């Protein structure tokens, strides 16, 4: 679970830096689309993660995931315009609620697989949105280093996948062994 929080924090940090460095050109439709992508994937991931870690208290985990996702949408959309701010808040709340409800409907092992999928989706969307924002500000820099950006993005995605599967299977197998020994 710690690896998941680290991944979410890194992706939000990358997104916030790229939004801070974005040009002042006011293209509201693109900003709302990026805001929807970021807050939806972040909210879904946080909803799955919080409900997975607090499975017995569904209502509390639902409210916490909705609140945290709305707060993240507020923080990211604050730098953009007002419509992107509203889009981020309500999309984050909806995604946090969907992530929580999905975890309750499926088994724990399927929820761990869903968390991995959500983390990879969050990583890809954060890298895509950051590249789009930074390509408007530094067009020549990103075009000259595009292969490096693609390779580093793939390495980051593989690192998330490897660390999550490595640490996740160790924790699941140890808890399975403990449960088997108790029986």
Structure description:
The chain has 183 residues and is mainly α. The mean pLDDT is 80. 89% of the residues lie in helices and 0% in strands. It is built from seven helices and no strands. Helix 1 runs antiparallel to helix 2, helix 1 runs parallel beside helix 5 (108-137) and helix 2 packs antiparallel against helix 5 (108-137).
Write the layout of secondary structure elements.
Layout: H1 2-20, H2 28-53, H3 58-77, H4 82-105, H5 108-137, H6 139-144, H7 146-182
Structural class: mainly alpha
Number of helices: 7
Tell me the span between the first and last alpha carbons: 26 Å
Any idea what the radius of gyration is? Answer: 18 Å
Percentage of residues in helical conformation? over 70%
Shape summary: flat
* Chain-averaged pLDDT: 80
Tally of extended strands?
0
Strand count, sense and barrel status of the largest sheet are: none
Spell out the key features of this protein.
183 residues; 7 helices
Brief characterization of the structure:
The protein is mostly helical and 183 residues long.
């Amino acid at each position: 679970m710690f690896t998941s929080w680290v991944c979410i924090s890194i992706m939000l940090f990358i997104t916030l830096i790229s939004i801070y460095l974005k040009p002042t050109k006011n293209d509201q439709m693109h900003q709302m689309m990026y805001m929807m992508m970021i807050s939806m994937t972040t909210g879904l991931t946080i909803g799955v993660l919080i409900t997975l870690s607090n499975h017995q208290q569904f209502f509390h985990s639902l409210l916490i995931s909705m609140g945290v996702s709305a707060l993240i949408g507020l923080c990211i959309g604050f730098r953009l315009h007002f419509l992107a701010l509203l889009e981020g808040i309500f999309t984050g709340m909806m995604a946090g609620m969907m992530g929580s409800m999905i975890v309750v409907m499926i088994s724990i092992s399927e929820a761990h697989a869903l968390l991995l999928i959500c983390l990879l989706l969050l990583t890809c969307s954060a890298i895509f949105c950051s590249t789009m924002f930074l390509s408007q500000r530094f067009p020549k820099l990103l075009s000259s280093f595009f292969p490096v950006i693609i390779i580093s993005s793939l390495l980051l995605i593989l690192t998330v996948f490897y660390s999550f599967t490595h640490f996740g299977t160790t924790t699941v197998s140890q808890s399975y062994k403990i449960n088997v020994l108790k029986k």
